[in-house]
Design brief:
mainly alpha
Length: 433
Amino acid sequence: MGKPNRKHRAAKQRARSGGADFSSLAGTDGRAPTAEDIGNAIMAAAMDAAQRGIPGSIAGEPVVAFAVRLAADDPLVGEVERGVSLAGQHLVTRAFHHGWLPADIQQAARRRVDEFAVGFMIDTIAGYMAPFDSATVDETWLAQLGDLSAEVWWSDSAVHFGQWTAKHLLTTAEALGTVIDALALLMLLPKLELIRSLPGTARTTVVVPHHIDEKILGRVRGLLAKAESTSFPEEAETLSAKAQELMTKYALDRVLVDADHAVPDLPGARRIWLDTPYTDAKALLIDVVASANRCRAIFASAWGFMTVIGDDADLDAVELLSTSLLVQATRAMIADGDNAARTDEARTRAFRKAFLIAYATRIGERLAAATAATIAESPEPQRLLPVLASHQLAVDKAFDTLFPQVRNRGISIRSAAGWDAGRAAADRAHLQP
């Protein structure tokens, strides 16, 4: 059965199970519910689902049970549509003020609700952004909105909800159920650190953050593409080493130029989302890559993302290198498990988790050694060291400001064979950004 059909059947079951009078959610004076009343009712239903912590399990909610009846009542159709808009805008605004970025909301949504709810959230974000002049919007926001294709596609002549419902061939009951799922997730989002300026507050006079030079970035990506496509390990190693060399030399040259021109260190922050399983082991890999690139990282285990603090160019390097190493680690882990010479243990969760932890630990050692060697071989190592120390102090200060209370947590290892295999794979890995 396709997803639309499943949603039709689920909506009918929800409608049959509801028994409360919708007017009890609106007002106590017998009047017809207004858009604000309906918006409050929708948020009440979403809060109930959120309190149970299970978006998508909303059977029996009165607002859904009576959705078909509301849709048949012409005077209320417009109020329902406007109520949905009010509820959506209220909760997405709350999420943004609590530190969530557009990409963060999308990443959380795709892990916990269906594609219809994800689409509704993206549209709600687009509606939130519509009034803002792009000149007052942080560049990270603009980039994420572009990546999500968060655009106002619907006509101004009608409210979004009705057009969105028609676009996805949903009934009003199905659409309201989807909205409640989406809003329940928004209610579950915890308060995060505000790592980027909110729309409307970014100023054009601030110092533009550093990013990797596009020419360097293009050369690095070209080398990585060749390294990942070749079937010859030696060739891949040469290409990857060249890419790493370019990135490291660029970073060191940049900090010296900034020091000469009194450019202030402006640590930024970025969130990197991790896919299950073994997110804690993958987080360790991100952490060692961040450390080797003059950054600090912290893991939000409940939601599965890393927040990395550092200069924007260093953050670019962390993302590039981490993405490549995660791919290599996963490929090597699966290959070890499929190796006919291996025992059944190589396919267990304990083996694979130990593999990834050992891989990350060994990669950290290799990266630290490579960084130390590059600094020692630089033309001005004595001048470079105090500049790097000053840079690190700025990063540490920014990290401590955002995360004044940090708790360290250990990771258990239950497979010696997995540990040995992981370290061996890390020794074969290409240290590419």
